[in-house]
Write a structure and sequence with these properties.
Six copies of one chain form a homohexamer.
Chain A lengths: L12 H8 L5 E6 L13 H17 L2 E2 L11 H4 L12 H18 L3 E6 L5 H17 L6 E6 L6 H7 L14 H10 L21 E3 L20 H22 L4
Parallel strand pairs in A: 1-2, 1-3, 3-4
């Protein structure tokens, strides 16, 4: 299957219908946000990364990629710096929930029975969960057969081996990854024109307490808006991380969605 | 203004903040849909066209372009073939309203005072109107100064002269344009790889009654899903249409948003 | 059928049940607004006109008329002068949608299978559409048979011949009709006591741009609140307009709702 | 005050603005329902009665009458027979709440500072209360001065003397009045053409337990749909009841709304 | 059945499942509020009383008691003093409705077919009614068999004989009971440590008009926050009241829910 | 501070007002759920634990404890076994959000300026976050000063030292704690009568994948409903855990809420 278009936004309707007609098609839906990612990466970073991870995985398992949800939940200080920062666009929980719920409803109406949400914005997860849960309830109540849906955040598929290799001095945890080495490295591999390594602010990782405080104290977020430094990011690391993610997601999706 | 990035999704947060800091920045927000556009154009057509019109206009008047809303309202038979067609993804009114409302709220929080919504999906208009209206009410109630917002559909700026030139045998009306000569011609000019003129189904324009009937009678929509034929579309026509649209929108935005 | 009461608000429940018991009854639901209509017509104009058009059509095709929805969407400047004007009462989209949705649900529960919404307030249309769409989805999900529903705005049935006859100097378009010759003439025919031709402000038609601007610039609406002048309105014109509308609506409803 | 129009639905916008311009105007908003009222009275009974009570009171205290809300809450078995009965149209709580909330918001925007809701459908009361409460909160949060609002059900103003006179054998309580002597008598006085005393079903009053059971047991509602018999209703009784109501409401409104 | 735990909050899941597995189990759900009850009783009074009444009745009819809803509707001046008082926590109608709707949905999912809501906060009733009504509609639409549900306020089961015995000087009505003799006496019987008779403010009962006025006039509520005096309350009266309530509720529940 | 009542549900309104009148009072609001916790612990476990942690902390820092929210979000398989299990009661996201939002609004209305939510049900966190965020936005928009609010889950305050001491063979992670050693040990310390160690099912910890799958595969949850075994739980461990939690929370609350 050379050069086949996997992203349905670029497919025409006739080709899309052909691709899903047997009821076995898998659709992966990337979910990101529009959120500040420091001085060195674009606002669309989470959307770009989740889309890229979805597309690479789709090529692997012969799936389609659905439209990218960029209307993500509000940035939270402990995982994204906080939604008080100019440059982050936060949608309310109800909106994220309904976006997800609608997409499940529409793909289900089209006859798609296997869906994967590929999350790239930490804050989205619980709201996507609720969106899928409500959609499943809607469909069950209507008496129809519910589709099979997987919900995941792509970084949860980075293996321990990859982490050990990339973070020889110890892994700080995904919670302070925002704008850090992982995201920046993958961006360098796939969207090098949009990454400005010269602008990276090499600041210490944020030290955030085990609670959220309102109103947010802006001083707790580093001036860069990133929770850890992107210094040391390379395209090579991006390749390694991507391979780990795509391999892991491909395997999980194959197993869960019964790909022959 | 050479090569300046106008689309904020590709800007980093620091550049975005710099660009909007004086309160005079204009942000144009494209609004489309994910909707079947016949066998010859991609599902993302409305999103692509509104984004392109916004970006060209933005270059013209030194504006920024916001994220593209693709979660549009349900396709209606008399303007888009109908949402029963597989390949169209319809969002409920409440969702379209809230997307728009949230973006106004967030840009307002950032300090942006001049916003234009550039609609490219007929069915969206009234729901965008409601979204803006509610956002303005929210802001007014909070005691802050409301921004200035323009809401338009780009085809309303095609001049009568351009119409006369492009449709010498008489203009069938924008209502049957869905997937027709205008959209296809502009796509040919800007996204030729995504248009398949060889797949165009050259069928008579739909003859639709002056009302909506539920449940929809699918036989009223031509088999192509397009309401008029795209035959005769050319990139040249796309250029003419675009020029008319961009000139008109630029002038309106300049006047309404007091661009110096 | 002499003097038969067609409006169910004036029927007792036993007669209503008798009238709908065979499942073939058609119910027409008028939809208007409470909105300023200049110095010469009452706030209830849209409600009165849609109700009258519905009642005359109902007598023609042996239908019933449901309750009149007057809780219409907010007046928009380009079709109704704008909701900033004191004397217009605007309901949010969600409310108009739910009113319509509830009525479909309740008539469906009663066993009514043929419903027509007769709209008389331009701004309502898309929200009524959504209301019907959601109600149809609700009913379909519950496993029951959906009713057949028509949604129309009455002026869309004025024939080209009637327009040519009544507007010999050229038709300005329905978009500037608000408070103009059509509405005033029909009111003169049916509610002459409520029309004050001596108060008509004979101002030029509004010249409105092809977009909406927020906040609304009140100076774009003529001082009368009407978008075109009612001067020249006569009951005779009202009769002609009504005949055109009622004939057209009757034919459409007969065909669509399979009236024997 | 001879022949002055009190109902704003029949006023033109200029007269309406004149009438409310000094900020002292009182607007009374009738609230009813569309609900079965037995074989002898129309579905619109509650709307007609609340409107009539409001109009008579308005003439008394020089007030205006707003539009009649007929989209009332679902009929409950213990006060209206139950919403399972064909002929009753029940709106959800959220809808009744929002209707009320919107009207307060719009009258407030117009500058009206004194509002009375005149309820004529038992089931509405708590939802109207919530609607007013939310509107007051909205207005307070926006930093504006809240209007003064009265919420009442008209029968609560029938005096003990009138009750003693009209029910010499003992008053059964307002809870079983639905379609009974009070409503029928007032209808006979004001809308005699719409009351069919020959159709009255003279059944014993319903004996309803002190709880609600779901699903409703239809056999608990008398076959007439009325909770007590309308036999014995007369226009004379209607006059007495009306006088008691209008006197009481006028006094309360005068005192509460500081009418000079 | 000695010492059997009836309250499911204290049951483990395995015992709960055992208790409801045959589909005949009755679950009583107490509903209260968090509301000021004068200087002599705790904020949780309504929750405690409804829970106690439910537990005693459950022991009587071999039922279970569900979790206590304390998130009640806003205190109203004519039945609870008003929600302006510090110490009352008022939830919006939509919230009370959804709490009730969710519990019905969840118990239904568990297989419970017989539910009784035992209300102890006057203001809740209509919102609980709506919650049950919507839940029944949800379940019916999903094609499943609706449960049988009873909704009651416990004081409606105090017999006339008990009232005559406890109020020899005449019964002031339940409307002014808030914080009065009934509630205080039952609290004295079951939660004596939480009642401070020495703090009772022996003030005349509130004289409240037959309407609600907004904004609330705080001076209409006695300084105690109670609508009638608790002076004269005794545990003995509490026992009598409780017996009357529990006997009446037990009988009603047995009959309605077909307890063998 | 001997025997002072800290839980406001047991306080009378006058004492409550006294306690909060200076604007320095801290209120801690426990948040739990009604959820299966295996065969050995009650459904109310999360509510009981969060309440106990809040009360002990309150005594420490001289705070009050607010009402316990038990209407928690749906149990998720990876943290609570899943909401498909009979015995778990799941509330939708919108409900959890609104509960939290309302409590902030009401405490704010009362003049309370320092609030801590003490979460005891993993799944709640993001929805509580949204609830607080919306409440803060509401208050900010109304022009009033926002309170200071802390949101935390109590187990996040167990120190590494305590973990090392209690889990000498390695800590399995809080994600599989549901019904495990931590919860069971604290319950043993404070509610020994409600824990049945003899019923503990000593099963291996659940091995859950790094994603959620819908519909849930029930076989992934151990038969006990607990994600790890409670064997080895002791009251002594409960004391150690509690001390760690209460010390940590007390310190954080003191620092964040500026307790003198």
């Amino acid at each position: 299957m050379v050069n086949k278009e996997v992203n349905i936004t670029r497919l025409d309707a006739f080709s899309y219908r052909e691709a899903i007609k047997d009821g076995e098609a898998i659709v992966l839906i990337p979910v990101g946000a529009l959120e500040q990612h420091g001085p060195h990466m674009p606002l669309y970073t989470d959307a770009m990364l989740s889309t890229k991870m979805a597309e690479l995985t789709a090529e692997n398992i012969d799936a389609l990629v659905g439209p990218t949800i960029w209307t993500g939940y509000k940035s939270q200080q402990r995982s994204g710096g906080g939604n008080h920062i100019i440059g982050s666009f936060g949608f309310d929980a109800s909106h994220v929930i309904e976006t997800c719920r609608t997409l499940v409803r529409e793909f289900h109406r089209h006859g798609v029975k296997k869906i994967g949400f590929i999350n790239g914005h930490y804050e989205n997860y619980q709201f996507l969960y609720e969106g899928v849960d409500l959609a499943m309830r809607d469909i069950a109540h209507s008496g129809e057969t519910t589709p099979t849906i997987l919900l995941l955040s792509y970084w949860d598929f980075v293996t321990d081996e990859t982490i050990a290799e990339l973070y020889p001095d110890g892994f700080p945890g995904w919670d302070v990854e925002h704008g850090g080495v992982m995201e920046t490295s993958i961006m360098l591999e796939y969207y090098p024109d949009l990454v400005h390594m010269d602008k990276v602010m090499d600041l210490p990782a944020a030290e955030l307490p085990p609670f959220d405080a309102f109103p947010v104290d802006p001083s707790r977020t580093p001036e860069s808006g990133c929770l850890s430094s992107a210094a040391g990011s390379t395209a090579e690391k991006g390749r390694l991380l991507t391979k780990s993610v795509v391999d892991g997601m491909s395997q999980a999706l194959r197993e869960q969605l019964s790909v022959q």
